Each structure stands twice: as structure tokens, then as C-alpha cells.
Fold:
Amino acid sequence: MAAWLIGLPFIVVTVVAARLAARHGRRGGYALATAGLMVAIAGAVLLAAALTAGPAGAATGAAAAGAAAAKTAAVKAASAAAGSGGSTAALLGAAIAVAGSTIGAGIAVAYTGAAALAAMSERPELFGRAMVIVGLAEGIAIYGLIVGIILIGKA
Structure:
């Protein structure tokens, strides 16, 4: 799990840089292809790290101590890893849900707010309708917060 947390910022920065570089024509296309290749390589490395780590490594290290002790240690390690990994995944999912919905709501409010102000400058009687649309865009963040609270409750 730590490998994913370490590699995630690298992947995000690479994707954002590629999107910015894509605005520069053919040269940006090459930069986008290079960034895609870098993300694919980073993903492969992280996948390999995630597949090789885990309770299986703890079980093989404990097997040298003896059959009964190894079984007990492996069961304890697997249950501890499953418990902490599940709660970590739930908390990470809650963070992603809240962050994604908040960013989406910010983008939605930016566009709908600008359009609402433009409409109200021409026809002031549209204030009520425009604020309802802006309020619906803000609701996206509330839905993400509710999902985050549910996921934290599961952790």
C-alpha cells in the first residue's frame, strides 16, 4: 500500500504535465506519448511492488521457525495486514471521494456561476433560477462528503 501512496503523486504530476504539454502541437504530442510511457512504467513498477509485498512474505519468513509457530504467525500477520489494509483503503477512498467531488464542484460552480452572473446582468429577474443551478453544482461536494463519511464509518 505504501508503494501506491509513494507513486501516486508521480503519476498525477506526469499526467498534468502531459496535459499542459499537449497544447503545443506535434511537440506536445511527443511529450504526451512520453508521459504516457512513463506512467505505464511507473504503474508496472508499482504493480510489481504491490504483488510481491504482503502477508505471503511474512508467512515464508515465519515458516523457518517451525510448523506450529509459523502457522500461528502467518495467521496473525495475515489478519493484521487485512485489518490495517482494509481501513487504510477505506480512508484513502474517503479522501479521494471528498477531494474529487470538491474539485468537481469547484469547476461546476465556476462555470455555472459565471453563466448565472452573465444572465442576471441582462435579466435581473433570473436571480432565483440561477441560484438554484449554482446550488445544484455545490451539491456535488456534499455528495462526496457523504460518501467519505460512510467510508470512514466502515474503517
DSSP finds five helices and no strands in the chain. The radius of gyration is 24 Å.
